[in-house]
């Protein structure tokens, strides 16, 4: 009777080197798609963060909210667009754009974190890199610098390992 033998790594991979690890978690097209999505969200989130910082300075430094529309509470005249006192409310029935900036940045940051996670998983980076990517959405101007560095690093890794992202 013939004893079955387990497949060796060289037999299992059929033509690939026995101890070679796959560097990336996706194909080159998937990585480039994730990189483009990350780049767009890094700029959008960074821009919204700068708007948020300006809004917080206006609110806590000058006690004013950004309003659009409504009626001036003191004179009764229509209020177009601009800053108005927060306490007591100087604009009635207007849209508080300061609150809108807070909400939009919050949700945009959630989508930014998803783009970070997708790129991080496909590139198989260490966890510390994910933390640095996530900080880009909460530290003013950091997303712009991190995006530039990450973009260059991904391009360099794809160029250095041309066969690695081919999974299928």
* Ends distance: 37 Å
| Strands, count | 5
Structural class: mainly alpha
Major sheet description: 3 strands, antiparallel
Work out the oligomeric state of the chains in this entry: single chain
Order of helix and strand elements from N to C terminus: HHEEEEEHHH
Q: Unreliable segments (pLDDT under 50, ≥5 consecutive)?
A: 8-19
The rough form would be described as: elongated
Alpha carbon gyration radius: 25 Å
The number of distinct helices, counting runs of at least 4 residues, comes to 5
Overview of the structural elements:
- The chain is mostly helical and 168 residues long.
- The chain is 57% helix and 10% strand.
- The protein has a three-stranded antiparallel beta sheet with strand order 3-1-5.
- Helix 3 runs antiparallel to helix 4 (127-135).
- Residues 8-19 have low confidence and may be disordered.
Spell out the key features of this protein:
elongated, two-stranded antiparallel ribbon, three-stranded antiparallel sheet, 57% helix, mainly alpha, 168 residues
List the helices and strands and how they pair.
Elements: H1 9-13, H2 28-62, E1 64-68, E2 71-72, E3 81-85, E4 91-92, E5 95-96, H3 97-123, H4 127-135, H5 142-160
Antiparallel strand pairs: 1-3, 1-5, 2-4
Helix pairs in contact: 2-3, 2-5, 3-4
Q: In short, what is this structure?
A:
By secondary structure, the chain is mostly helical. It is built from 5 helices and 5 strands, in the order H-H-E-E-E-E-E-H-H-H. It has helices spanning 9-13, 28-62, 97-123, 127-135, 142-160, and strands spanning 64-68, 71-72, 81-85, 91-92, 95-96.
